[in-house]
Design a protein that fits this description.
mainly beta, five-stranded antiparallel β-sheet, four-stranded antiparallel β-sheet
Length: 132
């Protein structure tokens, strides 16, 4: 099944694409827990090799509460992308509300040691309305 990437951002030749899906089977709505899975594809459109060093996420729930998540690499990896290569990974986000949003950036290191910051596009997290 081909995934539809709903959101994309391009920064200095690096494209970050996001597909997000609500997972009712992982959510516990009666307990105030909603869960989304997101698929990220990073495409290196630069002329040099880049290594993903760190991530910065800003996660906002439906009450306006903001969580900031910083860490090395993505899902335990620091992928190296040659020119024209891409890297895919999947992760998840729980929220205490049926809607929210995520956005952020990655820091890459180029072959010459310089840093490159790429935008992760803003994307909404929205659970479908449930009959109540």
């Amino acid at each position: 099944m081909k995934e539809l990437f709903q959101h994309a951002a391009i920064s200095e030749g690096v494209t970050v694409r996001v597909a997000v899906n609500f997972l009712p089977e992982q959510s516990r709505i009666e307990a105030g827990k909603w869960f989304w899975v997101y698929h990220i594809r990073i495409e290196n459109g630069t002329e040099g090799t880049i290594k993903l060093m760190s991530r910065h996420w800003r996660i906002t729930d439906g009450n306006g509460e903001v969580s900031v998540v910083d860490g090395d690499g993505v899902v335990g990896e620091q992928p190296v992308l040659a020119p024209g290569a891409s890297h895919d990974y999947v992760s998840g986000c729980p929220l205490p509300t049926p809607q929210g949003s995520m956005e952020g950036h990655y820091i890459f290191r180029r072959d010459d040691g310089s840093e490159l910051q790429t935008q992760i596009p803003f994307f909404p997290l929205a659970a479908p309305a449930t009959a109540g």
